[in-house]
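User: Here's a structure from my thesis project, written as structure tokens. My advisor, Dr. K., wants to see whether a designed sequence matches the one we expressed. Can you design one independently, without my sequence as a hint?
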């Protein structure tokens, strides 16, 4: 403690404060940049994964629709040729409509997932940036106050 008092008696606060302020500002800016880059990278990864999930879902749904449509065509042709049964045609049409509705619902849900993911990532970026700035400001203010108090 005596060494600290001796050092403080040799150093003027006016000489130290600008250096401390510059160092603290550089540290704060570097912290914000690093955290922002990490958050942006994570956001891009989340968005890419969400887009891949949507694309895979759409491909699966399209293949299911094609199978159902092909099966429906075969059933309709067979029924018209062999039985000419209107009831079966109506059932096939209802199945196709239900599949199309399911496809639309799946695509809409996938789109909502992507939008929610983007909103969550952007809100995380804001929260992390605010926390980093607050922590860095506290890290700056406490040492400066201590130096000023010990210098007085």
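Assistant: Designed independently from the structure alone:
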């Amino acid at each position: 403690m005596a060494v600290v008092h001796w050092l403080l008696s040799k150093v003027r606060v006016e000489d130290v404060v600008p250096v401390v302020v510059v160092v603290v500002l550089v540290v704060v800016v570097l912290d914000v940049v690093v955290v922002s880059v990490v958050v942006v990278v994570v956001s891009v990864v989340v968005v890419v994964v969400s887009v891949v999930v949507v694309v895979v879902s759409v491909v699966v749904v399209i293949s299911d629709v094609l199978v159902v449509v092909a099966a429906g065509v075969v059933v309709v042709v067979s029924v018209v040729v062999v039985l000419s049964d209107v009831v079966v045609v109506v059932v096939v049409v209802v199945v196709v409509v239900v599949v199309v509705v399911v496809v639309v619902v799946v695509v809409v849900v996938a789109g909502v997932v992507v939008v929610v993911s983007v909103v969550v990532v952007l809100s995380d970026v804001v929260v992390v940036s605010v926390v980093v700035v607050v922590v860095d400001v506290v890290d700056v203010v406490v040492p400066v106050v201590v130096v000023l108090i010990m210098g007085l």
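When you compare it with your expressed construct, this may help: The longest helix spans residues 13-83.
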